[in-house]
Fold this sequence. Notes:
Blueprint: E1 7-11, H1 19-33, E2 38-42, H2 48-59, E3 63-68, H3 70-79, E4 81-82, E5 85-86, E6 92-97, H4 103-108, H5 114-123, E7 126-138, E8 143-148, E9 151-155, H6 156-166, H7 173-187, E10 191-197, E11 200-207, E12 209-213, E13 217-218, E14 222-223, E15 235-240, H8 245-257, E16 266-271, E17 273-278, E18 283-286, E19 289-308
Parallel strand pairs: 1-2, 1-3, 3-6, 6-19
Antiparallel strand pairs: 4-5, 7-8, 7-19, 9-12, 9-18, 10-11, 10-17, 12-15, 13-14, 15-16, 17-19, 18-19
Helix pairs in contact: 2-3, 6-7
The chain binds adenosine-5'-triphosphate.
Amino acid sequence: MLENDSWFAIVNPQSANGNTKKRWPEYSKRLIKGGYRLDFAYTTEPGDATRITQRKLKEGYTHIMAVGGDGTMNEVVNGFFSNGQLINPEAELALFSHGTGGDLIRTLLISRGIESFLDTLGRGHKRLIDVGEVLFQDEQGQQTQRYFLNVADVGLGGETVARVNKQSKLLGGKVSFLIGSVLSILRYRNKFMSCKIDGKLVFEGRLNSIMVANGRYIGGGMMIAPHAELDDGLFDVVILGDFSKLMLLRHLPKLYKGTHLEIPGVTVHRGRSVVITSIEKALLDIDGEQPGQAPLKFSLHPQALCLWG
Ligand SMILES: Nc1ncnc2c1ncn2[C@@H]1O[C@H](COP(=O)(O)OP(=O)(O)OP(=O)(O)O)[C@@H](O)[C@H]1O
């Protein structure tokens, strides 16, 4: 019989360059000592966190803990859904960030480390946050659906993530992403895309990238959507126009600071549904993973998920 405050932790042992596997035994002991009933499973491969989450929610767990980086958190959020529906609308999620990047927790102002995580649990503060959904083509050309809490983007970011995820992140998420960004900027060619928000065409032409943001940060600390709110029922859509390589490199520091919105050619829109098409291959990035490409159809589920923190 499950106690109704039992937590199930889904732990990606490979996150933080394998450091999570070394540290989790100590962390789990600390959580149990802190009074939490806790079971856990290690993921064994990409996609496993989604399957484990689905299984545990169906078994009756109502408190899920995601332990890993942004990719793990994204997979766990996807596991809250099955056949387009929340498995249990009452179920709750806590994020123990232990990856290299940590972009989602930046918007949530959650700190890293076991003691901060225990503080978050101890405070018992929960909030309902919006969940983004995107339909896209996967690598095999199949129509696929994914959910996300943070940011999805198409264009330069997709190519950067594809590059960064192939290399080791031993230098840390921010440095790896910065190096990957610079290499990608040098090789990337702006693409011809169109973007409709809530049925209205807001952009058609050559552009660098489009970010569909629920959270604020991507790429290990770039504040790409400084005004995005996780619970306002709207995406912030940031479009980076037809920038030259030189101009992008020059303005890169502004992306980290969130002061890029003032650059001519950057536009921001808000809405609940976003449709993006591209006549060239344009890669999708969702929460630091690169699962497919345009055309993309986004919709928002307002305040659909209960999150601790
Ligand atoms: N057992 C496993 N073996 C190999 N890869 C795994 C395993 N479990 C999960 N993964 C994959 O590891 C990838 C990276 O995980 P995650 O994003 O959590 O960590 P990270 O890369 O260290 O952090 P961040 O994304 O915040 O930089 C995810 O795409 C996930 O699918």
